[in-house]
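New to this. Please check this record:
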Amino acid sequence: MAPVLMLPGLFGSEDAHWQTAWLRDHPESRLVQQDNWDHPHLSVWRARLEAVLEDAGEAYIVAHSLGCLLAASLAGRPAAARVRGALLVAPCDLLVTEKLHPGQIAFGTMPTAELPFPSIVVGSLNDHYMSLDRLTLFARLWGSELRNAGLAGHVNVASGYGRWPGGYRAFETLKARTRHLDKIPPKKPSLGRGASSAW
């Protein structure tokens, strides 16, 4: 099977984070290691991701927070053809994140292009990094299925998310949509408004 590339956000994902548990539980997954987790720069982070994708050939992406914006920034770039699908968990809003962490992030503007690979966005009703209205907007722009995890905060350790079976189930749904494909064709637009809350 294609490897699973784990994309954390600002500061990386600590040992108790669900992404770290995922790496332990799934031997086919690997962390896309960045040199500087504390001061993310889009071009630097994306160059690392694209290099890993080139080495992998094809891969799935599981991203959290700022890592979701990194994945979405691949739209329109050759490396996107190597992505079989992406699970985007608790994407952050740059307008909010830059206010909460002034001077630390150089990620430009929010990506708005439709993603050329299948994707599921998981968000919550009370994420202080992204309002529900903005979450719905970007899921629609990206052409992603939107799943509502309820009162899950930023879906991180502070919200009680260590090992996360719901994430594993969402990823299995994503894989089922692409398992029969040898290559990812251009994706037809899908509805991002129909949020599911089966968590």
Summary: The longest helix spans residues 42-56. The first strand starts at residue 4 and ends at 7.
